[in-house]
C-alpha cells in the first residue's frame, strides 16, 4: 500500500476518533478498542515487513511501545466517564488535550533520541505509535468503566 495513502487513512481515523470523543459518545467496547487494535495491527504489519532491523532496533521498539501505552493510560485518566441514558459515555476534556500535547512532545523527543542512537527508520511505524497510545487510553477508560458499575453502551445498529 502507498505509504502516503496509509498515512492519510491513519490520520482520518485518528481525527475521527478525537472529534467523536470531544463531542461525547456512548462508551462501548468495540468503539473503544477497535481503532487502536486496527492501528496496532497495521503498524505491526509494517514492522514485520521492515528489512535490516537489529536487536537494538527491537529494544527501541519495545521501549517506544511501553512509553506509548503509558502515555495513553495517563491520557485515558483525564477522560470524563459518566452515565447518560443509563449507560456509560465518555468525553475528552481540556486536560485530555493538554496531556495529548505533552505526550506528543515526549514521543517526538523519544523518536529523536532513538534516531540519534541509530534506530532504523523502518522500526518506527507511525501507525504503531498512534495505535499503542490509543490502546493505553482504551485500557484506562475501559478499566474505569468496568469499576463504575454502570453498563457499557450497547453496540449501535447499522
Can you describe what's shown?
With 158 residues, the chain is mostly helical. 69% of the residues lie in helices and 8% in strands. It is built from five helices and three strands. The protein has a three-stranded antiparallel beta sheet with strand order 1-3-2. A hairpin with a 2-residue loop joins strand 2 and strand 3 (87-91). Helix 2 runs antiparallel to helix 5 and helix 3 packs parallel to helix 5 (126-148).
Give me the secondary-structure topology.
Blueprint: H1 3-23, E1 25-26, H2 29-48, H3 55-76, E2 80-84, E3 87-91, H4 94-116, H5 126-148
Antiparallel strand pairs: 1-3, 2-3
Helix pairs in contact: 2-5, 3-4, 3-5
The percentage helix is 55-70%
Which value, in Å, is the CA radius of gyration? 17 Å
List the total number of helices.
5
Written as H for each helix and E for each strand, in order along the chain, the element string is HEHHEEHH
Shape assignment: elongated
Order of strands, main sheet, comes to 1-3-2
What is the terminal-to-terminal distance? 29 Å
Given as residue ranges, the uncertain stretches (5+ residues, pLDDT < 50) are none
By secondary-structure content and strand pairing, the structural class works out as mainly alpha
Instruction: Count every beta strand, where a strand is a DSSP E run of 2 or more residues.
Output: 3
Give a short account of the largest sheet: 3 strands, antiparallel
- Overall pLDDT: 89
Proportion of β residues?
5-15%
Transmembrane segments: 59-82, 94-114
Keywords: Membrane, Transmembrane, Transmembrane helix
Protein name: DUF1453 family protein
